[in-house]
Every structure is written in C-alpha cells, then in structure tokens.
C-alpha cells in the first residue's frame, strides 16, 4: 500500500491505464505537457544511453553524464525513478522481463546516490507503451505498477504518459507519439528525444533480447564514472543464417511486437545483432575473457565513451 497517486497513498494499484486516467485526470495534464515539448535529437557527447532490458543510475554532480535516456520504445515502457531531494536518477527500458528485480535495483541505486542529501521523496515517471493491438504495453504497465506497489517505500507517480495518452491514429493504425525520452541529470527535466548514437557495444547489448536473457542489466558504475557492459552469457541461437537470409519485412513481422510502427532502422539493427550472435555464440568465452566486463570511460576531448584497455 505504498504507491502514491496524485498525493494519495493507494490501497490498490490501478487495474489499467484507463482507470488511472479516469480516476486521476492530473496524469492527462502532465502527459499533455510532456507531449507539447518538441522532440530533441541528442548527440553522443555527455550521453548515457540505456538499451532495452537495461538500467542505469546517476547523480546530478556526475562529471561524465549530462543526459540519460532511451528510445525505440513501442510496446516497451521507459521508467524513470528520481529522488526529489538529491536529484539522483535511475532510468530503465523495460519489456516485461526482470521487472521486480529492476524496480528494486532502481530504487536501491537512487537511495545509495541520495545518501547524505536532504530528505526527499521517490518520484516515478512512466513514458512509452502505446495502445498496441495485442495489449502488450497494457500488460507491461500492470506488471510495472504491481512491482512498485509492493515495494516497501512510498513511491509517488508524477508522470504516466503511456497507453492511450501516448497514442495517435494514422491511416487507421495506432502509433506511438513518443518513442524515447532524455533526462537532464542536472535539472531533472524530462523531454521527448531520439538518439542516433546509442553508445558502444550495441550489437552485444542487443544480443541478450534474442537469446533468452531475462535480466535487466545495470550498465553504469557511478562510483568510478564508467559505462560497464557484462559479463554475461547467452545460449547459441539456432538458424541465424536463415534469419539473415530473410527480407526486412519478414524480420519485422516475426521479431517485433509492433511491426507496423517500428522506427526505420529496426531491421538493420536486428541484422547487425544477428551477425554478432553468429560470430560470438559463446560470449563468456570469446567476448568477456577472464570474466571481465567491458569498461568505457568518457573521453574528455570528445565527450564520448572510449574503451578502457587493461
């Protein structure tokens, strides 16, 4: 009983997005405000990009990060947890896998980064997850609400731009309005965004979606200011050659939860990931030698992530 909606502690979590918006119209207002902000294209310098099935947490005084964000969310939901006193932020791109663990980890990371700062509340913002025909995003919203509702801390939902509020109709097809968001870590400002550069090791990071890995990976070590990928393993994927021989339309139809509304680069990104899996069937052996993570440090000249060589 610790989910707070519009300032009121709730006995029950909202059963669906429609019930939430009906009972608490304030979320329509905050979503409208977010949707009115022009979408920004964010470059690589100072960016901490979070892929699907990943999370990261950062404090406002971090010298290596200016913007934390994620995009390409159709049936996924981008979750932002912020401590109002310290400004510490955690962001995750959730698809229904590992939700309970991710929610606990996000709140814990924010509390760690907020240690010693003035008192504040834990604020929650949800963005993405349009009204898709199969109801994937609605199920995910329910899943996320349940995870936060059973958390022992009071968590204040301040933004819920999901479902019908993040949906427009074009040619009789429901489309997401916002595919991604960025958060200014100094101010906490959240804004619609897209990210042409999604950071290093992208095919490796995306390989986890196709090979049965259900964990939400924490990709940032705030103590040392480094992006950290792995170590992890995945099962070999059968029939990669067959997948790579198919058309973009076939890949869209069979490897997307929302094939009609994916961004244009979806098939290209999937192909790059499948080729990576083909070349690295056992990453614990060929990629993460001696079980070491891949670390990346911010280059002070370019502002971009560069590999740390040992």
TrEMBL record:
Domain of life of the organism encoding this protein: Eukaryota
Any one cellular-component term (Gene Ontology): nucleus
Name of the protein in its database record: Protein N-terminal asparagine amidohydrolase
InterPro entries per the UniProt record, alphabetical: NTAN1 (IPR026750)
Organism encoding this protein: Anopheles merus
A GO MF term: protein-N-terminal asparagine amidohydrolase activity
Pfam families: N_Asn_amidohyd
GO BP term (any one): ubiquitin-dependent protein catabolic process
């Amino acid at each position: 009983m610790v989910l707070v909606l519009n300032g009121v502690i709730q006995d029950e979590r909202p059963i669906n997005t429609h019930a939430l918006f009906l009972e608490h119209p304030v979320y329509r207002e905050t979503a409208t405000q977010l949707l009115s902000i022009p979408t920004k294209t964010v470059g690589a310098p100072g960016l901490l990009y979070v892929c699907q099935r990943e999370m990261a947490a950062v404090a406002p005084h971090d010298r290596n990060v200016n913007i934390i964000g994620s995009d390409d969310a159709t049936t996924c939901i981008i979750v932002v947890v912020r401590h109002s006193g310290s400004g510490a932020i955690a962001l995750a791109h959730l698809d229904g896998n590992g939700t309970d663990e991710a929610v606990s980890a996000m709140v814990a990371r924010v509390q760690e980064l907020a240690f010693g700062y003035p008192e504040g509340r834990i604020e929650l913002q949800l963005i993405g997850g349009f009204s898709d025909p199969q109801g994937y995003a609605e199920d995910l919203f329910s899943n996320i609400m349940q995870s936060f509702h059973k958390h022992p801390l009071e968590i204040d939902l301040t933004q819920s731009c999901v479902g019908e509020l993040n949906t427009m109709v074009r040619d009789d097809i429901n489309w997401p309005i916002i595919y991604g968001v960025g958060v200014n870590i100094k101010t906490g400002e959240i804004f619609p965004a897209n990210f042409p550069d999604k950071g290093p090791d992208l095919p490796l990071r995306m390989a986890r979606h196709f090979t049965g890995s259900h964990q939400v990976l924490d990709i940032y070590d705030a103590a040392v200011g480094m992006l950290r990928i792995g170590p992890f393993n995945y099962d070999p994927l059968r029939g990669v050659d067959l997948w790579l021989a198919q058309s973009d339309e076939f890949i869209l139809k069979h490897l997307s939860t929302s094939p009609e509304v994916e961004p244009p680069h979806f098939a290209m990104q999937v192909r790059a990931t499948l080729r990576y899996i083909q070349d690295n069937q056992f990453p614990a052996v060929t990629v993460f030698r001696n079980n070491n993570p891949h670390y990346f440090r911010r280059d002070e000249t370019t502002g971009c992530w560069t590999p740390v060589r040992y």
